[in-house]
Amino acid sequence: MKLKICGLKTLNDIDFVNRANIDFAGFVFAPSKQQITVETAKTLKSALNPNIKAVGVFVDESYEFIKNLIDENIIDMVQFHGDVEYEMPCPTIRAFRMRTADDIKPTNCDFALFDSYREGTRGSTGGMFDWRLIDGYNAKPFFLAGGINITNLRQAMELNPYCIDISSGAEDENGDKSLDKILKIKDVLNYE
Length: 192
What we know:
24% helix, single chain, alpha/beta, 8 strands
């Protein structure tokens, strides 16, 4: 099972994910406490192990802005939150914020991503949703996000996602990424 650590902001974070040899690194370009600039993303990508795919996270961003990041080799994949999705020259992920099973809509993206819903936010919330809402989903390989951490990781794995997507669950009490937590998560994924 693959692992994505989202909300990377510093070269320390990149060092941690390189050492843990994860699969996907999330760079958030949407307004949030994890948002980074294009310049920061360029610096982080240059330090990222080339085997780790950089995923740009966007909420209703313009096609031109996203395409430029792909063309400059700053991101390898695109994750769409919000109302728009585009055909892109790289793999794409469509995020669904789950309240009911009806929140799952048709998508032309390569992957689905299921995350929790919170009023007034467009991206990740750090909270869990009722995983029974996606029980039996098999239209596309999917990323599972929303409040996953070491305590509920095995339960999340039972849903057989393509990838576990973790942000706050890989952070310490100060909100910084934790190498210890990332390595523990990776160990569970590797040995279960």
